[in-house]
Amino acid sequence: MRRGASRLGSTTRRGLHRSRSGGSTREPRAADRGRGDPAEPVLVVDDDPMCCRLIATALELEGFGVKWTTDPLDALELLRTGRYAVLVSDVNMPHMLGTSLAAQVRKMHPSVPILLVTAFGDRQICAEAQALGAALVAKPVQMDVLAATVRELLQERVEGRAAL
Predict the structure, then answer these.
(1) What CA–CA distance (Å, rounded) separates 70 from 18?
(2) Distance CA 67, CA 65 (A)
(3) Residue range 8-163, CATH number
């Protein structure tokens, strides 16, 4: 990424692009309804731009609204100012670990489901994810597993609200 370029972005079915707002421009198709709520998009955070875009694109192709960023500090700002259905975050990132980001999200938005993605899933990471109530998926991510896990987290969130 060139210096000074925006780290926020979104994906569309037609291709990848960047936008200053990080918002998605794709209108949901009829087949997409019920899969994800574009009003509360999934927030994807990964310091590797290619991986971040890949995850975002895979989720959009499954019908989810998606915002993404390659910087966990940007993600915190997005989380302070917006609503998100699910947080999907890499664990190993500069400036802030995904587990630290998840802990801060828990304080700001306790009901937001969190999915941590890591290539280094040792016992400590597994224990931290469990303590945070976060799901954990290993890299390389199988996109069907990723989408199914996000759907599952959303369903658990809906069922949790219904129980209240």
Answers:
(1) 12
(2) 7
(3) 3.40.50.2300
